Amino acid sequence: MQEVNVGIVGLGNVGSSTLAILSENGDQIALKLGYRLKVVAVCSRSVHSKHIPAGLGDVFKTTDWREVVAHPDVQIVAELVGGTSVAAQIVDAAIANHKSVVTANKELMAACGPEIWDRAIQAGINLAMEASVCGGIPIHAVLREGISGDRVQALYGILNGTCNYILTEIEKTGADMETMIASAQRLGYAEADPSADVDGYDARSKLVLLAALAFGEKITASDIFVEGIRRITPLDFQYAKALKHTIRLICGGRKTPHGLILFVRPALIPTSTILAHVQGPYNAVWVKGMFGEDTFYYGWGAGHPTGVAVVSDLMRVAREIRGGSPERVSPFAHERLGENKPVSVKLQKRAYYLRFRVEDRPGIIAKLAGILASKNIGLEAVLQEPCDTKNDLPFVITTEQTSEQSIGEAIEEMSRLDFMREAPLALPMETAL
Ligand code: HSE
Hints:
Blueprint: E1 4-9, H1 13-24, H2 26-33, E2 37-43, E3 60-62, H3 65-69, E4 76-79, H4 86-96, E5 100-103, H5 106-123, E6 127-128, H6 139-146, E7 152-158, H7 161-173, H8 177-186, H9 195-198, H10 201-215, E8 225-226, H11 234-242, E9 245-255, E10 260-270, E11 282-289, E12 293-300, H12 304-323, E13 342-343, E14 349-358, H13 364-374, E15 379-383, E16 393-399, E17 402-403, H14 404-415, E18 425-429
Helix pairs in contact: 1-12, 4-5, 5-10, 7-8
The structure holds L-homoserine.
């Protein structure tokens, strides 16, 4: 049977993996589909120094993405460039040229996925974006197909492998944050500027997409509370352990009576939970359904597995092209569902872990307890590991369940106390796992 022809734009890690898999696994893919996926054109700024596997046969090479989009034989354009400027032009031009699109671009789809999808439907082309979130975990397919008959109540994920590597290494070795960020950079997990990962922005784009699919709501980045991992110290892991918890960068969405609460933040999670066992640069997603209860998904978030996601999406779109998809429906369903409006994280109720660094003197606990009492916050426990540095003394207070609003007000007041060396660190203790 006649092959389906593909053009690849972007030959970084994901693009190169995609080519390698399409070459090495090409025969199997053809047997699964019933026809071959043929790469007819590739584009990269440095295409002439890129390795194009010989198994792909004759491939048109260019440094101008327009030549891939306009190539008369290309039926599916794989946008593997990333970012939101050139990538948006590539996707727009492909749709305008009635070419189907596969994208691995979380930022673009988080920023304007619903609009892109609508344009694709109007143009009668097919679109797939599995590789945009948790490369190795087919989580889009899970939410759109596998458990789509359920009503999602909560979704908690570890969506940034770099942060998970950093946190779990601090936990294991006792090394500090700076050392582990440098280690993540050496291993190629973190960029030279690690901010997108360690300050939570990469994870936020991923949660925008997953929450939109899981809850059927329009989600924008500003709906999600974000706090990065930079303030977490080895000592926090010691205290968390004493509380039978650990610390992970949790990307959460939860239905509450007020609305949908969304956050990306370091949180204490019980060591008994499955997410607490996710180590190193792995990703994981836990979903709680109203009818199907708990399901859990685990895998790599980057590298070769993302190439698998792109190739599988190319196969999906090739099947849709061959099968014809007259009734295309956007996975961004907020206009049809839209029953879970995002609300401020300040409304959430949790127990909190408060870690202080103070210049030691009598009356500190009494002062802090007074502030907590004035906000109607109950104190659960006080923990203090032995410490010689009286001018920089760390200790921890855990609270009973209270609102994020009250904790925020208490922290603000505590930060002004003259014995406080830095603003107290407040982490929620997540139980809904
Ligand atoms: N930088 C991301 C992470 C991988 O560390 O998970 C790509 O999304």
